[in-house]
């Protein structure tokens, strides 16, 4: 079992590098504002239902391991699983049904995301249900990292949704929160969140997930930044792409 989980974790690390290279030097992932760039023959599905279905395994699988092993789980394992589950309660049960408009997602993007969430939910759930190295020396710092990252992610998503509260489907320049400093505030928040999770768990699966998330979201933040600059002449010139004041 340990060998299989380690292999899946290393596969996630390798996949992260491949995804980063493709997204950085190849193309923009064709969902969200870029879904028009997908091939016309590729079926499209509702983004709302795509998000719900693809994310639900990352909620249900770890929740299963938490519930079935709750009595025997060490406190730190329980805590790590709860943090993971909290994120996916929002991502699977709340976020999808707050999406405004009839946005679409290409079927192949949905299927790849679903596969990743099944594998990652299994890896994080089963590993942390019995194996975790508690990083006690950093517990306060990393918990603050996770909490602040989750808050940044949720508030940034809310800011983006409110840009469409008048019912219009077009895009606008986001303001407020970390959008004052970066174009990808929601992506930055999620990366901070999973960095805190990885530092707290101090395990290979947690690190692999945080690394893959960074490799996937950092290029997307750059694509968003470039898109805003090309679309809006009045886009703030001092706003960075992904890390405040840096890049």
UniProtKB/TrEMBL annotation:
Has keyword Plastid? no
Top-level taxon in the UniProt lineage = Eukaryota
Q: What is this protein called?
A: 3-oxo-5alpha-steroid 4-dehydrogenase (NADP(+))
What PROSITE patterns does UniProt report for this protein, alphabetically?
S5A_REDUCTASE
Q: Which family does it belong to?
A: Belongs to the steroid 5-alpha reductase family.
Its catalytic activity? 17beta-hydroxy-5alpha-androstan-3-one + NADP(+) = testosterone + NADPH + H(+); 5alpha-pregnane-3,20-dione + NADP(+) = progesterone + NADPH + H(+); androst-4-ene-3,17-dione + NADPH + H(+) = 5alpha-androstan-3,17-dione + NADP(+); a 3-oxo-5alpha-steroid + NADP(+) = a 3-oxo-Delta(4)-steroid + NADPH + H(+)
Please give the biological process terms from Gene Ontology that the record holds: androgen biosynthetic process; cell differentiation; sex differentiation
This entry carries the following GO cellular component terms, namely:
endoplasmic reticulum membrane
The record lists the lineage as: Eukaryota, Metazoa, Ecdysozoa, Nematoda, Chromadorea
The record's keywords, sorted A to Z, are:
Differentiation, Endoplasmic reticulum, Lipid metabolism, Membrane, Microsome, NADP, Oxidoreductase, Sexual differentiation, Transmembrane, Transmembrane helix
Q: How does it sit in the membrane?
A: Multi-pass membrane protein
Organism name: Onchocerca ochengi
């Amino acid at each position: 079992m340990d060998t299989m989980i380690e292999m899946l974790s290393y596969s996630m690390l390798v996949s992260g590098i491949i995804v980063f290279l493709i997204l950085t030097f190849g193309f923009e992932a064709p969902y969200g504002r870029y879904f028009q760039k997908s091939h016309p023959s590729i079926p499209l599905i509702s983004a709302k239902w795509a998000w719900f279905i693809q994310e639900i395994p990352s909620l249900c699988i770890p929740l299963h391991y938490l519930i079935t092993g709750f009595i025997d789980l060490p406190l730190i394992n329980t805590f790590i699983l709860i943090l993971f589950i909290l994120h996916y309660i929002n991502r699977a049960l709340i976020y999808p049904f707050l999406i405004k408009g009839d946005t679409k997602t290409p079927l192949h993007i949905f299927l790849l995301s679903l596969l990743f969430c099944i594998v990652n939910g299994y890896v994080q759930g089963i590993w942390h249900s019995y194996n975790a190295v508690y990083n006690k020396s950093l517990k306060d710092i990393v918990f603050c990292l996770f909490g602040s990252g989750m808050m940044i992610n949720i508030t940034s998503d809310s800011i983006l949704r409110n840009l469409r509260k008048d019912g219009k489907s077009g895009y606008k320049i986001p303001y407020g929160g970390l959008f004052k400093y970066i174009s990808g505030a929601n992506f930055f928040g999620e990366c901070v969140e999973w960095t805190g999770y990885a530092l707290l768990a101090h395990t290979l699966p947690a690190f692999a997930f945080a690394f893959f998330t960074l490799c996937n979201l950092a290029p997307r933040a750059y694509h968003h930044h470039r898109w805003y600059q090309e679309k809006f002449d009045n886009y703030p010139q001092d706003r960075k792409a992904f890390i405040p004041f840096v890049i």
